[in-house]
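Hello Y.,

Per our agreement to keep a running log of every chain we model this quarter, I'm adding this entry. I've kept the format consistent with earlier entries: sequence first, then predicted structure.
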Amino acid sequence: MDNKLIYEFSSEKTDGDASLSNLLGGKGANLAEMSKLGIQVPPGFTITTEACNYFSKNKKLPDGLKEEIIKYVSNLENLSQKGEQGSKIRLTVDTEIQKACGKLLNEKAGSISVMDIYTGDIIAMYSSPSYNPNLFLFGISNDEWQLINEAG
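Predicted structure for the entry above:
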């Protein structure tokens, strides 16, 4: 697997855009596009669908992906603004709209993102079926893989 496996997005550098939704998934491509348009989104990175498909087929991460993830996480730590202890945090997720998104999907496969077009605030994000992407950081067991496959 020689293709690029991680695409980053930030106000300083963005690799992808909306045209790469097959490679980055809808959320990854749209986050990259919003970042390119100058909409304030927290910096991040997307692991490609090719890497996910490789993992699905081989039950292991592609060569070098773990090291790339560590590099990109380190880069994110450098880009992230550090908060001060005791400072206030403002959350923008509306729990009622979040619940409504869940009802709209009604256990169908898909995702919904709701953003305030004037401020860029994220109002709701919902994905179905749900899964914990942290499971894939350093590999998962066959039992965990079976649970994920059975849930879909």
